[in-house]
Structure formats: C-alpha cells, structure tokens
Description:
Blueprint: E1 8-14, E2 18-25, E3 28-36, H1 43-56, E4 64-71, H2 77-88, E5 93-94, H3 115-128, E6 132-137, E7 140-146, E8 152-159, H4 161-171, H5 191-217, E9 223-228, H6 231-237, E10 243-244, H7 248-261
Parallel strand pairs: 1-4, 4-5, 6-9, 9-10
Antiparallel strand pairs: 1-2, 2-3, 6-7, 7-8
Amino acid sequence: MAQETGSLLVVIDVGNTNTVFGVYDGDRLIHDVRLSTATERTADELGALLLPLFARADLELSAAGGVVVSSVVPPLQAVFDRLAREYFGCEPFFVEPGIRTGMVIRYDSPGEVGADRIVNAVAARELFGSPVVVVDFGTATTFDLINAAGEYAGGIIAPGITISAEALFLHAARLYRVDIRKPAQLIGRNTAGAIQAGIYYGYVGLVDGILERLHGEVPGLRAVVATGGQAEMIAEGSRYITHTEPLLTLVGLRLLYERNRGV
Length: 263
C-alpha cells in the first residue's frame, strides 16, 4: 500500500564506492537500495534509477517528508541537493560540521572526521552503549572508538579489503582476479584458492590485530560492531567482532535527523 505524501524519511549514505538509500516509516526501516557511486551521474539520472526501484516496493518519491544526506564525496553534494528538492520535494539536511550530534568529538580538527564515521558512532552508542568500537568495511576500513564517557575518541584508518586486493592484482602480472570471500580451506590447492585464503585470512588478521590492541587500551568494551558491505564476511572469521549491523549508517542518519529537525 502506497504511503501518504510527507510521511516518510529518506536517508542517503554517499560513500566512495556505493550510495545507500534507506526509507524510514517512524523508526522502522522499510526499504533500502544500493547504487554504485558515480561522480558523473546527474540528479536526473539518479531520479530515473530510483523511481522504478521505489515503485517496486510500492513507494513514491513524493511520499518523503524529509531527506538526510551523509556524503564523503564533496563534488556530489550539489547533485543530492537537487535530487532531494526536485524528486523528493524536500530541502535536504546534510550531515556536516556544526550540526547537533549529542556527542563530543575528541579529535584535533573535528571537521576532518568523515561524516559517515560520526554517523556510525552516534548509532553504535545508541544501540550498544559505550565504550564501543565501530569497524566500517568500505573503500577504506575504519575503526572508531566511542569511549566510556560516550565521546568520539578517534580512530584508525586502513586500506579496504577490495583496494588491497586490487593492488595485488595490478602489480602481480601472473595473478588473476578472484571473488573476495571466505575460502573453503586455509591451504589453497590452486591459485584461486591460495589468493582467496591470503586475502581473507590476511585481512581478518589485520582486523583482529588492531582490535586486540584496542581491547588492551580500552578496558570494558561493550561491543565491537562491524558495518559495511563486507562486515558479515569478515566477522565470520574474527575473534573480536561481536555484532554486525550492515546498515548501521542508516540508523545514525535517522537519529541525527530527529535531533536536528525534530521529527
């Protein structure tokens, strides 16, 4: 059944690789769509892609009563501003320095922290309490700490698993691309299996090595929350990840919209 005009909140997470659109009815996520992020794509092209994807879920773009956007791709801000105004009929709310987060940012230059990292921190604290660590598997893999006082205490940035694998394929002429997934066994019996084992277990080792050090520095961690497209795959092999929330950023966007626009 189609929703009434103005009854829904559209949350948009613009990442370097993918852009995720979520639709909330109150505090319930009722639909989500993932598109590749393309800097050359126009607002009209995005609208044309979204119309049938929303219609398939019996949703209309005009049903949006609010739009909130988190973006780590500055050139696309104008595109999503126009998309919100012309297709959703709303003035968008952008997550940027100066908004009300309800969280102290303990960073030398708070404006340097990516919007997605703050959004994730807000959501993780709301869902799990603090201290808590968020591991976000994207183009880069970020580890963000919310301390016992509920403050954003800083983080760690590592190359993402996909771009790490691409570097291997680019510079090793005789190694070919393989699907990045957990292999059936540790010891590969062919080149594809050996590459998959090296990428997967090597990356799990990176993640757990950092998390082990964080556990040593931050006693009493309530949770280590993994999010992003590869969260569940890596969590399966990790000794330290306790929860997976692939759409954690969408939760944080809803919370920040409510705190700033008073839904």
